[in-house]
Amino acid sequence: MQTHNFSNVSSPLTVQVISKYQELSRQSAKLSNIREAVKAWNRATPGDAQNYISQLVAKEWMATGGRGLLLAGSVHGTKVNFFRMINTPGPKYDKYLEMLTPVIVAVMTRDNERVAREFGLVTGKTHGQRIADSIKESSDVHQAAALGAPVPVLCKEISESIVAKIHLVGIESFSMIMAQVTMMLGAA
């Protein structure tokens, strides 16, 4: 007969999990997230992505009244200066990137919403989700009317449908929509 020694090693491993942002302050982690998002945006954009992205950001920066940061000038100079901010962490470039963050988020959201959502820069519903909400609310109105719902229930469903449609085009369009509805009701 053979003897086997068996040692029960069932203690958990004591390997410490280290986050890539563990040593960073909250602001530095936010800037690292912006840097990673811009790099992903760069990879997702076909063609001469760096020129394209830096020009979009520079135009938006100038349109919002931004000054300095050496983003005005030649296409090459703008690209070099912008991507120096992205690729070189440090107090000077962190300060510049902090100033540019709202512009980067706005431009990235318009140009590549998927990347902006992936890095948590954009929250809320996507355009497709807003369309689906609008369709659902419209069908709720039709269903309530077909089933002979009381007027208060029907009014509630209609108002929810209107709100869903306003969210579809943006709340800033509300006054224009109401002006057109008022004109249509006046003509009827």
TrEMBL record:
Q: Which domain of life is it from?
A: Bacteria
The record's section on Gene3D superfamilies has:
Putative bacterial toxin ydaT (1.10.3600.10)
- Protein name (database record): Toxin YdaT domain-containing protein
